[in-house]
Amino acid sequence: MRKLVRKTLVALSSLCIAAGALAQAPAKEIRVLLANHPYGDLLKAAIPEFEGATGIKVNAESLQEGQLTTKLTTEFATNSSSVDVFMTRPLQEGKMFYKNGWYEPLAAYDFSDYPKNVMSVATFGARTYIVPLVTEWQVLYYRKDLLAGAGLKIPASFDELEAAAKKLNSDSVAGFASRGKGAAAVTQLSSYVYNYGGLYLDKGVAVFDSKPAVDAIRFYGKMLGNYGPKGVTSMSWENIMPLFQAGKVALWTDASVFYGQIIDPAKTQVSVDKVGIANFPAGPKTNSPFIVTSWGMAVAKQSKKKDLALKFIDWATSKQLAAKGMQANITMARSSVWEDKAILARINPGLVETRAFAAKNGYPLDRPYMSAVGEARDLIGELVIDSINTKGVSPNLEKMAKERVEKVNELLQDTGEYGK
Amino acid sequence: MNRKIVSSALFYLAVAAIVLVVLFPFLWMLASSFKTQVDIISWPPKIFFSPTLQNYRKVFGEQDFLKYFLNSTIVGASAVGLSLVLGLPAAYSIARFRQRKLAVFILLARLMPGISFLMPWYIVFSRLDLMDSYTALILSHILIALPIVVWIMSTYFSTIPPEMEESAMVDGATRQYAFWAIILPLSGPGIITATTLSFIFSWNNFMFSQVLSMEKTKTLPIAVYNFLSYAEVDWGGVMAAAVAIMAPAIVLTMIFQKYVVKGLTMGAVKG
After folding, report:
1. B123 and chain A: CB distance < 8 Å anywhere?
2. Which of A13, A78, A83, A236 to mutate to test binding with chain B, by most B CBs within 10 Å of its CB?
3. In chain B, what are the domains?
4. Is A16 on the interface with B (CB under 8 A)?
5. Residues of A in contact with B228 (CB under 8 A)
6. CB-based contact (8 Å) between B43 and chain A?
7. CB-CB: which of B42, B127, B229 is closest to A37?
8. Residue A346 predicted with pLDDT over 90
9. What pLDDT digit, counting tens, does each position of A152-200 carry?
10. 3-state secondary structure string across chain A
11. Which SS3 state, helix, strand or coil, does residue B173 take?
12. Does the CB of A329 have a partner CB in chain B at under 8 Å?
């Protein structure tokens, strides 16, 4: 019996060693993790060109964003990652990745082609770690036919938005929609908070219990509670976009990234000429919708082939590829592609106009920008749900906001980010 | 007579209602997998629509699901096979020698959240250069399959009277031979149950494959996520992929259903 055990062990371990030997990688090879994102797809298709020009073999893998974060976190945390370059979400994971030392600083990269407010989330201290890829901003999508039918113009302020939503709301069509599902709603609520004059965090301190912020949450709750689709507190974009595409929503505020899908005849029931895009309406205080870097690219600190990785990131974030991305309707972060007449001629004017407005007036964050962003979003999400459920008149909202602010401040203190 | 008709009518009505509730999500998925994106989101839902094979073309053409099928099959079959090799003798030993603590210990592996194994595994496998290898995935999936095999089979073995192998041993057989020649042939239904269940659990496992596999060894549950893009969900693709993934599990269960129920309830009374 003991002999058998020994034999099995020997056989198993030799199997492991054999498999290990087979997996040895050649020297000029890098591993790249991409997101399931149109730009990731575009890169994947273009990689053979890079391989041909440089002789570097690229092992690219695409993952859904949640999976991507899980995988990167596991690999980096165990300090045995073989990832060289990866796509990353600066606002969602940037701060945590930076604090853990998972990004390689990009000293030699030329960042002059990127807007200042975009760079603010790619830079920590004096160094830059992330190359911004894609930006998105908040807009108002509307049904041209419904507005015209009711004799309304495009809402340009919150008051007009409310009046229009009230008039357009019926049993078959929701007057207004925006994300209502707790944490998912936090990003779309942000522009409302800014336009009321509030913020989530101010210099590392949670301040969303301020009067403007609470007023904004009340307004958001009133709009969705009165004119939103049924069950809106469990709806994120996955649920609202199909409703809009099915003609069940008249006004919808969300990120610009969805425009392509709601004007694609293969995906929507509402004919394209009935759908419009407009600037996010102004609030009582200002009009400063979010414009955020939703995706960036970075080199892994643990990479053993940084020279090759840097070569790849230079190519993958180049102006040529950015121009290609624009042609594929991806709203790239580089400034120059938004100034190139030849490129702009092929892009929907609605996108160009709303981007110009947001780039000029917008705010570069759409969520509490901190390491524990997930927990903070959950906490703010509870306020959103309470506000929607009470149609914005919850008597407890101030108290709840105060409690949530304290909790978020504790989270900030735990990670040493409080007051910074 | 009349009452009999009424009561059986009520019975079948109740059956139909339950079946409808249980099958509804599945039917919805099946129908959606043949719809275009526009038909899927349309409201009210379209019951009559012109079916398209576009989604299945995406699943097996653009996405190469056959490869993922093969990966899932290799991993599941190997893990279950190895679990049977290790688990059947273990279960026999637990049943005959009343090694209760051992049994609980094996169950513990199943009770612990799988994620607690992942970090150590990742370190070990990446140091051994076994990332993205079938070896790593199979070894991890044994953790899923082995406890099921051991637990189902140990109750099953305990229902077989010990006199069976004792009489063989009286005639000069070793215990090992008696196990091989007498007990195993009697355990068909139990083995089928354990195999089916553990294979399905391995087939459906998401977490281990997510971290330990990459492009080469990607398994089916991970591949479904290929249809979820940033800010975009290809519902038709997801539905078609889900149908394709569920099909083998459903076929397997239908074929072996009789044995599964038998194997699970065997020994239930004896305890």
Report:
1. yes
2. A78
3. 55-265 (1.10.3720.10)
4. yes
5. 36, 64
6. yes
7. B229
8. no
9. 999 999 999 999 999 999 999 999 999 999 999 999 999 999 999 999 9
10. CHHHHHHHHHHHHHHHHHHHHHCCCCCCEEEEEEECCHHHHHHHHHHHHHHHHHCCEEEEEEECHHHHHHHHHHHHHCCCCCCCEEEECHHHHHHHHHHCCCECCCCCCCCCCCCHHHHCCCEECCEECCEEEEEEEEEEEEEHHHHHHCCCCCCCEHHHHHHHHHHHCCCCCEEEECCCCHHHHHHHHHHHHHHCCCCCEECCEECCCCHHHHHHHHHHHHHHHHHCCCCHHHCCHHHHHHHHHCCCEEEEEEEHHHHHHHCCCCCCCCCHHHEEEEECCECCCCCCCEEEEEEEEEEECCCCCHHHHHHHHHHHCCHHHHHHHHHCCCCECCCHHHCCHHHHCCCCHHHHHHHHHHHHHCECCCCCCCCCHHHHHHHHHHHHHHHHHCCCCCCCHHHHHHHHHHHHHHHHHHCCCCCC
11. coil
12. no
Binned at pLDDT 50, 70 and 90, residue A20 comes out as very low
Positive or negative, the CA dihedral A404, A410, A415, A418 is: positive
The interface residues of chain A toward chain B in range 229-248, judged by CB-CB distance below 8 A, are 237-238, 242-243, 245-246, 248
Residues A324-334 pLDDT 10s = 999 888 999 99
pLDDT (tens digit per residue) in A88-132: 999 999 999 999 999 999 999 999 999 888 888 999 989 999 999
Domains of chain A listed by start with CATH number: 27-135+292-361 (3.40.190.10), 137-290+366-414 (3.40.190.10)
**In chain A, which among 245-264 make CB contacts under 8 A with chain B?**
245-246, 248, 255, 257-258, 261
Contacts of B229 in chain A (CB under 8 A): 36-38, 64
Query: Residue A8 has what pLDDT?
Result: 57
* Predicted confidence (pLDDT) at residue A291 exceeds the cutoff of 90: yes
Contact A233, A385 (CB under 8 A): yes
Q: What single-letter amino acid sits at B96?
A: R
What is chain B's pLDDT, residue by residue, as a tens digit (271 residues)?
688 899 999 999 999 999 999 999 999 999 999 998 888 888 778 888 889 999 999 899 888 899 999 999 999 999 999 999 999 999 999 988 888 888 888 888 888 888 888 888 988 998 898 888 999 999 999 999 999 999 989 888 888 888 888 888 888 888 888 888 888 888 888 898 899 999 999 999 998 988 888 888 999 999 888 888 888 888 899 999 999 999 988 888 888 887 777 766 665 554 4
Residue A328 CA to residue B53 CA, distance in Å, equals 26
Residue of B nearest to A20 (CA): B129
Q: Answer whether B190's CB lies under 8 Å from B263's CB.
A: yes
How many Å apart are CA A111 and CA A119, to the nearest integer?
8
pTM as predicted: 0.85
Closest CA to B40 of B271, B227, B178: B227
Given CB atoms, is B159 within the 8 Å cutoff of chain A? no
Are A24 and B129 a contacting pair at CB < 8 A?
yes
Of B38, B135, B225, the CB nearest to A269: B38
Convert B212-270 into a string of H (helix), E (strand) and C (coil): HCCCCCCCHHHHHHHHEECCEECHHHHHHHHHHHHHHHHHHHHHHHHHHHHHHHCCCCC
pLDDT mean across residues, chain B: 88
